[in-house]
């Protein structure tokens, strides 16, 4: 099977969706490393429960982003990682990661890109008052949320409950991300 790494900063529901798809055979792959920039994040508990090796680090313990990314790249190289899946990793990658893994890094973003880039896409779209929401899986390049689109899924929501909306976004994200990764590993979706 293929060898994946997931990068996450928070809750980790997308990480768990990917790991579960590996476990039940929907993905012919294994998550060989979780990278997390917040050692207390819930995603680290999920990884421990699922037996996924974790590199959790504090950016402040390093002199620079390039320095911690050099450590990450070494770990990815050592484990033969083929595809890096960002899943709520709330940091912009530097040249170190992009030079080493460019073209093999994908991200999930909770809006229909190119609308609502950035860290607060669901809230921004909700406050804007859109009636069609969605999710995007895309390649990562040096433009924020700007890489080539791999997959998108849209849904209608006209309610006024942002928590209900967030739950709907996550429910769309999990299968879309798994299907997009499956396509990439099978050589489709390019
Ligand atoms: C997801 O909704 C993901 O799309 C979003 O963070 C959430 C992480 O949830 N990513 C971004 O906003 C990136 N700009 P999770 O930790 O439960 O997977």
UniProtKB/TrEMBL annotation:
Alphabetically sorted, this entry's keywords are: Purine biosynthesis, Transferase
- Does Protease count among this protein's keywords? no
Q: Which residue numbers mark the site Raises pKa of active site His?
A: 145
Active-site residues annotated for this sequence: 109
> EC number(s) per UniProt?
2.1.2.2
Reaction equations catalysed:
N(1)-(5-phospho-beta-D-ribosyl)glycinamide + (6R)-10-formyltetrahydrofolate = N(2)-formyl-N(1)-(5-phospho-beta-D-ribosyl)glycinamide + (6S)-5,6,7,8-tetrahydrofolate + H(+)
Name all Formyl transferase N-terminal domain ranges: 3-181
The cross-references to Pfam families, in alphabetical order and at most eight, read:
Formyl_trans_N
Q: Does the keyword Iron-sulfur apply?
A: no
Positions bound to N(1)-(5-phospho-beta-D-ribosyl)glycinamide: 12-14
Which pathway does the database say it acts in?
Answer: Purine metabolism; IMP biosynthesis via de novo pathway; N(2)-formyl-N(1)-(5-phospho-D-ribosyl)glycinamide from N(1)-(5-phospho-D-ribosyl)glycinamide (10-formyl THF route): step 1/1
Binding annotation for (6R)-10-formyltetrahydrofolate: 65, 90-93, 107
Q: What does it do? A: Catalyzes the transfer of a formyl group from 10-formyltetrahydrofolate to 5-phospho-ribosyl-glycinamide (GAR), producing 5-phospho-ribosyl-N-formylglycinamide (FGAR) and tetrahydrofolate.
Q: Which family does it belong to?
A: Belongs to the GART family.
Tell me what this protein is called.
Phosphoribosylglycinamide formyltransferase
Organism whose genome encodes this protein: Alistipes inops
């Amino acid at each position: 099977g293929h060898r994946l790494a997931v990068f996450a900063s928070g809750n980790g529901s997308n990480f768990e969706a990917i790991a579960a798809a590996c476990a039940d055979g929907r993905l012919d792959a294994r998550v060989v490393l979780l990278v997390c920039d917040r050692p207390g994040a819930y995603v680290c508990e999920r990884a421990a429960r699922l037996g996924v090796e974790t590199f959790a680090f504090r950016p402040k313990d390093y002199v620079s982003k390039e320095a911690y990314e050099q450590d990450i790249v070494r770990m990815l190289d050592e484990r033969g990682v083929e595809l890096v899946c960002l899943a709520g990793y709330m940091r912009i990658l530097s040249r170190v990661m992009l030079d080493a893994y460019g073209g093999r890094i994908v991200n999930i973003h909770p809006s229909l890109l190119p609308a609502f880039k950035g860290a607060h896409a669901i809230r921004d779209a909700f406050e804007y008052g859109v009636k069609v929401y969605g999710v995007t899986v895309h390649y990562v390049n040096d433009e924020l949320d700007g890489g080539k689109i791999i997959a998108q899924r849209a849904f209608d929501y006209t309610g006024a409950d942002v928590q209900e909306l967030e739950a709907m976004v996550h429910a769309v994200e999990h299968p879309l991300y798994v299907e997009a990764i499956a396509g990439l590993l099978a050589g489709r979706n390019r």
